[in-house]
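Support reply, case 0932

Customer input (verbatim):
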Amino acid sequence: MTFIVIGAALAIILATLGVTIGQGRITKTSMKNLGVNPELSGTLTMMTILGVALVESCAIYGLIVAFQILNATEISRLSALAAGLTVGIPAMIVGLVEGSIAKAAMDALLRNPEAKGKIMTSMIIFIALIESCAIYGLIIAFRILGS
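Our regenerated output:
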């Protein structure tokens, strides 16, 4: 039972660690840029909410796998541990990288407010592309668990 709990804990702890740091970078940059150019308030708020919401998906992957591990009726200790790490590590890294992408987009907006549409579109596309790595971890964790 101990390894099963550890596997579930690793899934959610690692995923939320990366997501929290990524979201912190996003909101910190938004607040800093708002102080530099208050006229960008609406766009920065929209980009911040969008960025935070996109990054949050990695925490959801960790949560789903943690529940799958805890609710499994027949699971080996190593499978529980492997599934937790398989989703947790990619979700952590992706959360960090996606936060950096959103941060860069907000910095680009501060330098060139006229390009806000292109900047936001690029941010969404790049985050979606990076997200696939976390989805791969989620899929393999499901396969390890036999789901």
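We compared this against your earlier run and they match. Two observations from our side: The chain has a mean pLDDT of 95. The longest helix spans residues 2-36. Please reopen the case if you see a mismatch on your end.
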